[in-house]
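Our consortium's second objective concerns turning raw sequence data into structural hypotheses that experimental partners can test. To show how far this objective has progressed, the report includes one record in full. It was chosen at random from the queue rather than selected for favorable results. The single chain below, 165 residues long, was entered without modification.
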Amino acid sequence: MNIAVPWNASWSSEEHYEIRPCRWVGMRRAMWMPHTPGVGRPIFAKPHQVRQRRSIAEMRCTVCGEKAPEGDRWWFQLGEVREGWFMTTEAPVHRRCADFALTVCPHLRGQEDRLEPMPGGFSILSSLIGGPAVERDFGFTIRPGERVIGALKIAWKEKFMRRAV
């Protein structure tokens, strides 16, 4: 494996934002960025808005970008519980990609105990964005009542989770 930058990471050349229809959320309006991976410097802690949605919609590995089939779909149990749902914006990973990420990603180092096969029975949810954080992070205002999607989330009813997160 020769992956220096995760597929979902954004690049400095992609730091331009617009609101456009997105095929990964049924052509609803969503945050958009250009697609120029490998150009500029990688921004590891800032997922590319469109690739993040695609990775959840198509169950693509967040590390390599290839589809993660049910028999090789892992996750790190990173997320939060809200209103009885456990939610994560993290896409699944292949086992080999998870093992690789554990050795190179500072955020995942020491998280081996959180890696497990991704459970079934999930729902995919859209998160709406707006407010001062959007203005600060993306440079424009979303008007009250305007529905704009940011990330997709994978969610499970908390009572069906195998162990506490």
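The partners drew two points from this record. The first strand starts at residue 9 and ends at 11. The chain has three helices and ten strands. Both points have been shared with the crystallography group to help prioritize constructs.
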